[in-house]
Every structure is written in C-alpha cells, then in structure tokens.
Amino acid sequence: MRIRPEVFDDRAAVYALTHAAFAGIDPMVEPEEVGLLQNLFNCEQYDSRFSIVALDDTAVIGHVIATWGEVEGEALLGLGPLAVAPEYQHRGVGSILMQEIHDKAEEERVSGIVLLGAPAYYRRFGYGPAQAQGIIPTQSMWGEHFMVRVFDEARLPRGTFHYAKPFRSDR
Ligand SMILES: CC(C)(COP(=O)(O)OP(=O)(O)OC[C@H]1O[C@@H](n2cnc3c(N)ncnc32)[C@H](O)[C@@H]1OP(=O)(O)O)[C@@H](O)C(=O)NCCC(=O)NCCS
Description:
By secondary structure, the protein is an alpha+beta fold. 24% of the residues lie in helices and 30% in strands.
C-alpha cells in the first residue's frame, strides 16, 4: 500500500470509494458525503496538504481530508470525510490515513484538528471531547461526538468552531 497527497486525477476514484463506503440501503442513492467532497475540493478552505489517498498498486482505496474552519477568526482544521473502500476495510487503511494526516499536521505546526465522529473510533487516534478544550460546536446536540486532537495546546484557539463553507448547510 502507498500513501500520498491526493491529486486532481484521483478525484473520480475518491468519489466512487466514498459513495461505496457511505452507501445506505439503496446503493443507487448518492450519499451526501460525495457532494460534500466535490464542494470541499472546490472551496477556498481546501488545502491540498491535508487531502491524502491510500493506494493498492494503482487503485485508490482510501481517502482522508481536513479543511480549514475557523474559531473566533483563527484557522483550525476540521477533518472529514474519511472513507475506505468496503472491500479494504478492517485492514488498518483508515488508521494509516489518520496517522498520515496527523504527521502532516504536526509537520505544518497545526495546533489541532476537530471532527464530528464516533468517539469509539476516534479516541484511539488521540481525539477527546472538544468542549473540554474550550472548542464549542455550532450544534449542542453533537455533544461528545464533536472531538479535537490537540497538537499544541498553547496555540489552540478557543470559542465556537465553524466548518468550511460546504459543511454549513448541515453544520
Ligand atoms: C471508518 C472507516 C474509515 C475505518 O476504516 P478501516 O480501514 O476499516 O479502519 P481500520 O482498519 O484502521 O480500523 C478498523 C477498526 O475500526 C473500528 N471501527 C470502524 N468503524 C467504527 C465505528 N463507526 N465506530 C467504532 N469503531 C469503528 C473497528 O474497531 C475496526 O476494528 P475491526 O477491524 O476489528 O472491526 C471505514 O470503516 C469507512 O470508510 N466507513 C464508512 C465511512 C465512515 O463511517 N467514515 C468515518 C466517518 S467520517
């Protein structure tokens, strides 16, 4: 398996694997994460350093992205979607993608990354409740699912977090 930054030519494969990973009961219905990704790739808050693919030989089998949101005027990364092609799940691909985006964040001196996700999955990557760190979600019902991984506590902005614009119709 290889890991590298996503390039434009990967995007069709990224949409396909994201569709498969998030598919509901009817596989013909496009999950909202696919449209979200299309908008994220085209928004101002997209940063190619934080869009990473996993490949098996030449096929793209996994993808993770973080885009710039903001807290009180200061930039903070928001992670998601993360997706691994169903036939490649449970082999550590998701974990490797998470490790890679964290390594990149540390290399680029990012203070933290927030996400909305399952605590049972993301705790293992060092995420904890964001509100305990003073980062407030726009929707209180997110509760413990709104999480942060802190890289530099002193530089972490505190206040209400707003995701990149494409998220905002539902976040
Ligand atoms: C979540 C996802 C990215 C994990 O990718 P993966 O390559 O299978 O992850 P890993 O192999 O590194 O880790 C697998 C472990 O994660 C855990 N896990 C996966 N999804 C989980 C969830 N929703 N809640 C809790 N734990 C979860 C399981 O313990 C699993 O262990 P197992 O293989 O013993 O069952 C993948 O399952 C996926 O694409 N799911 C659909 C899309 C999605 O839910 N994305 C995350 C939200 S943005």
